[in-house]
Amino acid sequence: MSETVVVVVPDADILASTVAARLVVKIIDAQAVHGTASVVLTGGRVAAKVLRSVRELPAAAAIDWSRVDLWWGDERFLPAGDPDRNETQAREALLDKLPLDPARVHAMPASDGPDGDDATAAATRYAAALAAAAVPGSTVPRFDVLMLGVGEDGHVASLFPGHPVLGETGPTAATFDSPKPPPTRVTLTVPTIQGADEVWLIAAGPDKATPIGTVLSGGDLPAAHAKGVRKTLWLLDEAAAGNRP
Ligand SMILES: O=C1O[C@H](COP(=O)(O)O)[C@@H](O)[C@H](O)[C@H]1O
């Protein structure tokens, strides 16, 4: 039985530090159970703050970083190292400071990567990487926690309201004509997100209050489809939670 929990904290800084603390404990617990931990990272402003906060937590020393698999929920389809890539932001915020196993850092392809500027081929390549790590009976790996930011329009990953990518049923998809720049992206799909053990929706600031209020009142925005198998956790600051029922 899946549960939904809404946690509200005073502001964005406290949100980042509490999400970081949860993430560290989640990884430690997953490694205790499975030997490894599998985390899906998100992009956006609050995500970078969370990753920077992980660096400051003494408890992070209890993680064996060489046994953490990192995946991404979506990527802005730009050249490698572009500052707007979610991967670049995560590397600068945290990953470059950790003793990770490079083979376990599963960044989405860049637009100057093996598929060039073919975003559909890049999405297919990422689906193949997911399949290579898949648990039996699935096309994707076990995800202990899948983190998502929430856009002002209620988007999660690169799944935008009213966009055809929302209906994709494969594990990944290319998003074209994104209403938020850049226009071309690669994303996990709704069914893949819904396969994660826990989904955490993380948002801070008053610009997020309207979409979050809509979803928590039963409205149909992309964020409403982001649900974990065991748990869906909304992690909000007071400003983002301002319109919740
Ligand atoms: O473009 C994106 O935006 C969302 C939300 O970003 P934020 O800065 O408003 O928190 C993010 O979750 C997504 O991964 C990213 O590609």
UniProtKB/TrEMBL annotation:
Entry keyword Amino-acid biosynthesis: no
CDD domains linked to this entry: 6PGL (cd01400)
Residue ranges annotated for the Glucosamine/galactosamine-6-phosphate isomerase domain, each copy included: 10-234
UniProt key word Secreted: no
Catalytic activity: 6-phospho-D-glucono-1,5-lactone + H2O = 6-phospho-D-gluconate + H(+)
GO biological process, one term: carbohydrate metabolic process
EC numbers on record: 3.1.1.31
Residues that span the membrane, as ranges: none
Purpose: Hydrolysis of 6-phosphogluconolactone to 6-phosphogluconate.
Protein family according to the UniProt entry: Belongs to the glucosamine/galactosamine-6-phosphate isomerase family. 6-phosphogluconolactonase subfamily.
Cited PANTHER family: 6-PHOSPHOGLUCONOLACTONASE (PTHR11054:SF0)
Descriptive protein name: 6-phosphogluconolactonase
